[in-house]
Amino acid sequence: MTKNWGLFYFLCKKRRNLLKNPKGEHGMTDWQIVENGGDGWDVDRVRVPHPNETVQKYFVTSYWMCRKSQLIDLKVEGYNPSFMDQFQPEIRIYDWCIHRRDCGCEYNICVELLDKKKKPIQTFAPEKVYFEQWTNEKWIQITHVFQDYGPGVRYIHFIHGGKDTQFWAGRYGVRVTDSCVEINPAMDS
């Protein structure tokens, strides 16, 4: 049971995805292209139904590394520094990825909590995910919750991407969509 109902209410009311254009509905708008290898990034219609029926598009990668990012300024999003330092609410991230059955690929993600000088305070960077060629297409959700990260968090840097492993011309690499970064109320705060 929560001890601070005011904080709980505030966080529930403000809870939203802080990433812009997470499903590719507006092309590559709002994303910073970090690497655009092979034939580069593109947006395509989802071929395998996503668990979230509102997802109709995804970002597709090519045969050399493709990575894109967003830098979230927490103050601009309404989370002032003293609030973040005092309460350190949970920061939940997730990302969805899938591959094409006929082509192997790899996926990677790195999310950093940054201070005012944009230096990392905490980082989530799991091992790359590899999809083997000729395996069934299945959506995979990558999730992480930042907790007890200490004072000083002012920005969140979200970066993800991948490539195909067959080096085929075109866009046969990993597909990503419905990415999310949100500030969550902790039930036991």
Describe this structure in words.
- The chain is mainly β and 189 residues long.
- It has a single domain, classed as Jelly Rolls (Sandwich), CATH 2.60.120.
- 9% of the residues lie in helices and 40% in strands.
- The protein has two helices and eleven strands.
- The chain has helices at 5-14, 81-87, and strands at 32-36, 42-45, 57-60, 66-73, 90-98, 105-114, 120-124, 129-131, 140-146, 155-164, 175-184.
- The strands form two sheets. Strands 1, 4, 6, 7, 8 and 10 form a six-stranded antiparallel sheet that branches.
- The relative contact order is 0.29.
Extended strand count: 11
| Structural class by sheet pairing and helices | mainly beta
**CATH architecture classification:** Sandwich
Beta fraction of the residues? 35-45%
CATH superfamily: Galactose-binding domain-like
CATH fold-level assignment:
Jelly Rolls
Unreliable residue stretches? none
- Taking the alpha carbons of the first and last residues, their distance comes to 8 Å
Cα Rg: 17 Å
Count of structural domains: 1
What's the story with the biggest beta sheet?
Answer: 6 strands, antiparallel
Order of helices and strands: HEEEEHEEEEEEE
What percent of residues adopt helix (DSSP H or I)?
Answer: under 10%
Nearest-integer average pLDDT = 93
Helices and strands, with pairings:
Layout: H1 5-14, E1 32-36, E2 42-45, E3 57-60, E4 66-73, H2 81-87, E5 90-98, E6 105-114, E7 120-124, E8 129-131, E9 140-146, E10 155-164, E11 175-184
Antiparallel strand pairs: 1-4, 2-3, 3-11, 4-10, 5-9, 5-11, 6-7, 6-8, 6-10
